[in-house]
Amino acid sequence: DLQICQHRAPTCCTKKMEDSYQAAVRRERTQSIQALNFELKYMIVGHITAFQEAFESLLRFAENRTSSLFETAYRPMAKEAAEPVKELFTDISLYILGAETTVESAVLRFFDSLFPLVYSRLINPGITDLSEDYTECLRLTRQDVNPFGRYSKNMVTELSKSLWASRMLSQALSLGIEVINTTEHAALTKECSRALVRMQYCPHCQGLTLIRPCVGYCLNVMRGCLASVSELDAQWREYISTLEYLTNEMAASHDLETALTGIRNSINEAILHAQLNGPQLSATVDKVCGQPKQQEGNLPSENIVPVKEVTESQTFVMAHASLNNKRREFINYMKRSRTFYASIAERLCDGDLVMRDSSTCWNGEDVV
Fold first, then answer.
1. How are the residues of the chain apportioned to helix, strand and coil, as percentages rounded to the nearest 5?
2. What residues contact residue 140 under an 8 Å CB cut-off, 6+ apart?
3. What InterPro entries would the database entry show (predicted)?
4. pLDDT, tens digit, for every residue of 242-284?
5. Distance, CA of 176 to CA of 160 (rounded, Å)
6. Which pTM value belongs to this model?
7. By CB neighbour count within 10 A (0-12 exposed, 13-18 middle, 19+ buried), where does 187 fall?
8. What residues does 213 pair with on adjacent strands?
9. Residues of the chain with pLDDT under 70
10. Which residues neighbour 325 within 8 Å (Cβ) at sequence distance 6 or greater?
C-alpha cells in the first residue's frame, strides 16, 4: 500500500511511515529555510533598531536645541512653548516610523499653537485674559494672517524632502522582514512533499540509511519545490536597488541631520518675522478676534534677540557618524544578498543534505 517509496525489492516501510516522512520533510524544509533566512533577517532587524536609535538620538538633540531657543531668547513663552515643541518632534518621529500623518500637518499644527504665545507674550505682552475662545481665535487666524511669513512653508518643504527618504527606508526595512517571514512559511504542495520524501527517505526503506541524494537530483527537486519562492528574484533585486537609492537619498542633498538641526533656526526666523510685523498683526487680530483685556500701561515688547546657532555638540556628531556608518554597512551587506532568492535551491542542496565526495548517491530510483 506504499504511495511514494514503491520499489521492486522487499521494503521495511509502511504507509504510516510514509506519512511520518511527509511530516518530517515539511518540518525540515521550514527549518532549513529559516536557517538560511536567519542571517539576512538578523541583519535587517539589527539595522531597523540601529536606524531607529540614531533617528531618536538626532530628534532628541534637535528637540533640545529648539527648546533652548525659547529658554535663551524667548523666556516669557518658554514654559508654554515646551508642549508644542514636544508634540512637533513626536509627530516627526511617528512620521518617520510610517504613521498616517504628514510633515505639513505636524509643522502647521505647531505654528498654530505657537502663534497665540508669540502674540500674547512677545507682540502684546500686556494681555492678561487669554481665554480659550480668544486662544482658539488666534489659532484659526494664524492661517489667514500668516504671521510667520514664508518661514513656516520653508520649514515644511525642507523637512518633507529630508524626512521622506527616512520614512520610506523605515517602511522598506519592515517590508523586507515581512517578505522573509512569508517565504519561511510558504506551504509545500503535495507533489513537493512526496518528491522530498522520495529524495530523502525512500532509500531508508531499502535499508540504505547512509546514502544521500545526488547533487543534480537534489537541485531538480528543490527548484521544483521552491519555484514560487524563486520567482521573487526579480522583485528582490529591485527591492535591493530601491534600498540603495533611499540610503543614497538620505546621505545626499536631502540630509536628515541638517534638516532636523535647522528646525531651531527656522522657528527663530519665523518668530522674528512675526515680531517685526507686530503692529499690522495686532490691527488684523483686533478686527477678527476683538481686543483682549490689557494690563494698565502697556508693557514694552520683548527685545528682538537674534539667536546665534549653537555649535553642534558631541552627541549630534556621534549620532550623525553612527547613522552614516550604519547606512554604508547595511547597503553593502544587502547588495551581497541580491541573489538570495535566485540561489535558494543551491544553498539548500549544499552541505550535509547531498553526497559530494563519494562515487555513489541516490537518484530517486536507485543507488548510482
1. 70, 0, 25
2. none
3. Glypican, Glypican_CS
4. 988 888 877 765 577 788 888 999 999 999 999 999 999 999 8
5. 24
6. 0.75
7. exposed
8. 362
9. 128-129, 252-254, 293-322, 355-358
10. none
